[in-house]
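Researcher: Next sequence.
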Amino acid sequence: MISNLRNYFFGTDTLINTHCGLTNRVYLNNAATPLVAKPAIQELYETLPIYSYGNEPNDLSAKLTSKYNEVRDIVMNFIGADSSLDTVIYTANTTSAINILSQVYYEHDPDKVILATKMEHMANYLPFREKMKTLLVGLTPEGNVDMNDYAAKLEQYSGQIKLVTVIGASNITGIIPPFHDMAKIAHSHGAKILVDAVQLVQHKAFTMKPHTDASHIDFVSFDGHKFYTGQSGGVLVGDKAFLDQYKPLMYGAGITEFVSSSKIIYKDSPERYEAGYPDFLGVISFGAAIRFLQNIGMKNVEEWERGLYQYLIRRLSQIPNLILYGDVYNNTRTPFASFNIRDMSYHTLAHLLGYVYGIDIASGTNGSNLYVQNLLGLTDEQALSLYRSGEEYGIVRASIGLFNNYDDIDRLADALFCISSQQL
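Model: Next structure:
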């Protein structure tokens, strides 16, 4: 299957119009939204004949609801959750999953402290920052979490920090923080930990570890559109007994056991957090995408993508005036690389790659404003000054997915070499 992976995805042979005419698009923006896996869509085609509201008293409706709920077990199995202790809450996406947990912790104790890092995507920072006191752990020169600063902040605020929130893998550099080590230290100070795994689980094997393990991950979030589905649908996975104690973020039908004008009894999780019409198609396709990767084997996924990434770095490191960000030789990572060309704005570089060479990449801060500022060596004041001047700041990012191949890497590297050479 590895040898013909492109055949399992839509869009791998799409033509794109450039200033030089039509060419085959190279898609390297998988950290934003990857191309769609055909098995995920095939599952939708098989589901559509029985599609309905989902609560009708008949056999087809029961089958639809069963397919939908089976995905909870698929998710638990995929990330090593405990079906007797954890729950899988369906959400619209990872951002909504994290917002649910931020609201839970605000209700739990609004005066307690959240500990985040400067690696975070804004989806894993602003939901906490706008509700509660949120501290930031600094970074190492290589672009990873500074574990000395992390341990020092937990010690300084011991008993006050109730939740650590950390990205599973950077959407900018692909660097993976030592989140299991972070969990162990957090637990020793009475805090739980959330890992935003939306950039991780489709690239590398991941486990929450048992609840009895000191390095157990308490909460995990990820979603389908980053997992080759092209659909909405995400999950928040975590301690059911804890989540059963709090009110939902969103109110509506389907979350209550009983309602009268004087009394409301909410369902337990996950249903109490799943107001409104279920996203049958998004969730069911999500389950199919997970099964697709499991059939390939996550070790095979890692091995294929590691080879592509190492080849990418070898090619990029040979390009004059190209600046790579973060520790690109750290193997504890996902296959993303961020770069600029010296004395050229990231806007110009991205424009040339897209409109001249037909290469789909990302540019800017990509939602990780604090991290990009750090990688570029900008102070808060300098970043604000660039914003106000209209110049802004950012990087260009290439992010590899399962369907990419060595020809894609060569197209990118050859284009960057041509662009860089014209700068000399």
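Model: The chain has a mean pLDDT of 96. The two ends are 43 Å apart (CA to CA).
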